[in-house]
Amino acid sequence: QGRITVPAIRARKGAEPIVCLTAYTTPMAQRLDPHCDLLLVGDSLGMVVYGMESTLAVTVDMMINHGKAVMRGSSNACVIVDLPFGSYQESKEQAFRTASRILAETGCAGVKLEGGAELADTVEFLSQRGIPVMAHIGLMPQQVNTMGGFKSQGRGEEAAAKVIADAKAVAKAGAFSVVVEGTVEAVARLITTEIDIPTIGIGASVACDGQVLVTEDILGLFSDFTPKFVKRYADLGDQVSKAVESYATEVRNRQFPTDDHCFGVTKPGKLRAVK
Ligand code: KIV
Ligand code: NA
């Protein structure tokens, strides 16, 4: 029956919660796809997969390669790919060039960019030219240097007013949904009632129209740091360590491989003399 479309996601506003997780690879996408409405190929992959300290060094080529991998591993979810730092902020034309290339090469349904009021003209330019845009406001990891770290947003009247204005600006500009990250509950709740596109929360309370988290965070596969808003649903990192420890022990003790894992095993005595 095909993938969930961007208009279908938008139409979830006020109806049904939107389930979203990040995905970077084919095997993980295969596991997530049946359960998710949206798969986000996030630039968080720079930190989670490549061990970078921030998302700033992630390139368009990296996003395209991982976008293709996630598309190959999914058939149900709507796939959205992040525009990485430096690939869209310069001008709306630059943003269109980057986004159109990502859509054409990966086959994804749309792109996500970090920004509020200051990026509204870019959101509008893309949306009106066939590129669905998911905006991302509140805590914007690509602005780590201007923020001086990863800090929650919307505390105090002025800060709250800024996030609310950003939400309204991107909704008016034609974004089909908006990620609200690391934003105090009251502000996220207000935004969700005030704009007519779905809010996808990450550390922005249950009031949002949907939720997103980094998959490796909820599975216990990434523990360099764990933000307050992450809930851990499994400890796969522990399982990996235990499995690899067993393998290493068995190799060192010559317990692996056994005959079950070998080709052309000859029973002792049946071995023909080799001249
Ligand atoms: O890069 C990312 O994974 C994200 C989400 C967590 C919203 O932007
Ligand atoms: Na991101």
Automatic annotation (TrEMBL):
<feature type="binding site">
    <location>
        <position position="43"/>
    </location>
    <ligand>
        <name>Mg(2+)</name>
    </ligand>
</feature>
<keyword id="KW-0808">Transferase</keyword>
<feature type="active site" description="Proton acceptor">
    <location>
        <position position="181"/>
    </location>
</feature>
<keyword id="KW-0963">Cytoplasm</keyword>
<dbReference type="Pfam" id="PF02548">
    <property type="entry name" value="Pantoate_transf"/>
</dbReference>
<feature type="binding site">
    <location>
        <position position="114"/>
    </location>
    <ligand>
        <name>Mg(2+)</name>
    </ligand>
</feature>
<feature type="binding site">
    <location>
        <position position="82"/>
    </location>
    <ligand>
        <name>3-methyl-2-oxobutanoate</name>
    </ligand>
</feature>
<keyword id="KW-0566">Pantothenate biosynthesis</keyword>
<dbReference type="InterPro" id="IPR015813">
    <property type="entry name" value="Pyrv/PenolPyrv_kinase-like_dom"/>
</dbReference>
<comment type="function">
    <text>Catalyzes the reversible reaction in which hydroxymethyl group from 5,10-methylenetetrahydrofolate is transferred onto alpha-ketoisovalerate to form ketopantoate.</text>
</comment>
<comment type="similarity">
    <text>Belongs to the PanB family.</text>
</comment>
<feature type="binding site">
    <location>
        <position position="82"/>
    </location>
    <ligand>
        <name>Mg(2+)</name>
    </ligand>
</feature>
<keyword id="KW-0479">Metal-binding</keyword>
<comment type="subunit">
    <text>Homodecamer; pentamer of dimers.</text>
</comment>
<dbReference type="InterPro" id="IPR003700">
    <property type="entry name" value="Pantoate_hydroxy_MeTrfase"/>
</dbReference>
<protein>
    <recommendedName>
        <fullName>3-methyl-2-oxobutanoate hydroxymethyltransferase</fullName>
        <ecNumber>2.1.2.11</ecNumber>
    </recommendedName>
</protein>
<feature type="binding site">
    <location>
        <position position="112"/>
    </location>
    <ligand>
        <name>3-methyl-2-oxobutanoate</name>
    </ligand>
</feature>
<keyword id="KW-0460">Magnesium</keyword>
<feature type="binding site">
    <location>
        <begin position="43"/>
        <end position="44"/>
    </location>
    <ligand>
        <name>3-methyl-2-oxobutanoate</name>
    </ligand>
</feature>
<dbReference type="InterPro" id="IPR040442">
    <property type="entry name" value="Pyrv_kinase-like_dom_sf"/>
</dbReference>
<comment type="pathway">
    <text>Cofactor biosynthesis; (R)-pantothenate biosynthesis; (R)-pantoate from 3-methyl-2-oxobutanoate: step 1/2.</text>
</comment>
